Amino acid sequence: ALKDAVAAAAIDEIRRRLDRDTVIGVGTGSTANLFIDRLAALRNDFQGAVASSQATAERLQGHGIEVFELNHVGTVPFYIDGADEINPRLEMIKGGGAALTREKIVAACAERFICIADASKHVTTLGGFPLPVEVIPMARSYVARELVKLGADPVYREGVVTDNGNQILDCYGFLIDDPVAMEARLNAIVGVVTNGLFAARGADVLLLGTEGGVERLEK
Ligand code: DER
Predict the structure, then answer these.
(1) Residue 183 falls in the annotated catalytic set
(2) Structure pTM?
(3) I want to staple 51 with a disulfide (CB 3.0 to 4.6 A). Which of 56, 178, 179, 192 is the partner?
(4) Is the pLDDT confidence value at 125 over 90?
């Protein structure tokens, strides 16, 4: 119910800003899926969407919403997506759904990142949720050793291949007191494609589902 409330709040957040040329960025996961299902009712009020995963693209198309290639769109006015954790500075850990690379790409092209999350995702310090790191398969063991040097306990997400043909290490035991610095440090490890810290470019608005209703927090 909390996820549904924030999905509805995201529709209210954007509906007056849609016109027939608008293409919006859409995230991945169970909360994003509830948003997509509600977006269907507005499909004649905007042009289409850029998807952050194959799964999201298929769900959008299933609702008759046109999906565009990002290279043909450029920027999008908003990107709506969930998070695994989000702190008061609207920095996030994402990647629980293995879509972190394309999510981060679409988010980079968005003027406004609207995060939709239930209260369980709201934390003071990031790192309770294991930090996903997308790696080039041949580099997996090398990256794992480098992550251990940084104090993490990396666990290979067996049987998962991302939309980009890569693999994921989930890093347990990271206490991340400087998300921006850690994001940059992880990006510097050869073989890392993307890490799940969305801190340099966090969210701009958080719609947080709480028992008392939806709270709107802005950076
Ligand atoms: O994988 C992701 O980044 C998803 O957005 C995830 O963080 C949120 O998924 P959920 O809405 O199913 O909790």
Answers:
(1) no
(2) 0.97
(3) 56
(4) yes
